Amino acid sequence: AQSVTQPDIHITVSEGASLELRCNYSYGATPYLFWYVQSPGQGLQLLLKYFSGDTLVQGIKGFEAEFKRSQSSFNLRKPSVHWSDAAEYFCAVGPRPGSSNTGKLIFGQGTTLQVKP
Amino acid sequence: SAVISQKPSRDICQRGTSLTIQCQVDSQVTMMFWYRQQPGQSLTLIATANQGSEATYESGFVIDKFPISRPNLTFSTLTVSNMSPEDSSIYLCSVGYGEVGNQPQHFGDGTRLSIL
After folding, report:
1. What is the rounded radius of gyration, in angstroms, for the C-alpha atoms of chain A?
2. Which of A9, A63, A70, B11 could anchor a disulfide with A59, C-beta 3.0 to 4.6 Å?
3. Minimal Cα distance from A51: which residue of B?
4. CA A40/CA A30 separation, integer angstroms
């Protein structure tokens, strides 16, 4: 079965501290991988994506993520968290072109990030 | 990326009524999708809106409950029919460009729906 697991429902970090949000997936083939952020009352904003190539991808707002095929993981990191990073973060996987499931994204349950001053 | 506008942004509706949500994109897109985000939950795909043909629904979602239209490459509507409190959710429109799966999907700000 295809699924995305974000083991941490809620994380609290101090401003300026480093951050890592975990994401593990189960998929029949190598998927495309995404991280989205949802601020309160807002839609989803794409932070970064991985399609192929360098397994360490850089995104917006200073975020990066590393694809580890052997671990079926795509963890999101940021070296120094800002108070404005407080939001809900979603990991998602999607099929490669040509799949019968083209366009269908599978989302994790989300991780709520709280930032302490 | 495209600008995606959803209307209404929020609404409070009575049980048994229906509401149509509009999604307008400022450029032509290949694919449009509708997702539901129940309170405290993740996103679940309702259906893919196909231009000029019937939408493709995911398991657990049916056309009678969630009729969808897509008259052109920039516009789609989702109707939530005969609403009950269980339909209280955020409904999000998403668009994909080119060969979907080769490009990420972009989301609107969503419609926050509460059913009394």
Report:
1. 14
2. A63
3. B102
4. 32
The residues that bridge with B78 in the sheet, in sequence order, are B21, B68
Q: What is the pLDDT of residues B76-99, one digit of tens each?
A: 999 999 999 999 999 999 988 665
Angle at A34 between CA A14 and CA A86, to 5 degrees: 25
Q: In 3D, which of B113, B103, B101, B97 has the Cα closest to residue B25?
A: B97
In B1-116, which ranges are E strands? 4-7, 10-13, 19-25, 31-37, 43-49, 56-57, 68-72, 75-80, 89-96, 106-107, 111-115
Q: How confident is the model at residue A1 (pLDDT cuts 50, 70, 90)?
A: confident
Residue A33 has what pLDDT?
92
- Would you call A90 and B43 a contact, using CB atoms and an 8 Å cutoff? yes
Check B108 against A43: CB less than 8 A apart.
yes
Contact by Cβ (8 Å): A8, A109: no
Find the range with the poorest average confidence among A53-67, A83-97, B12-26: A83-97
- DSSP for B3-26? -EEEE-SEEEE-TT--EEEEEEES
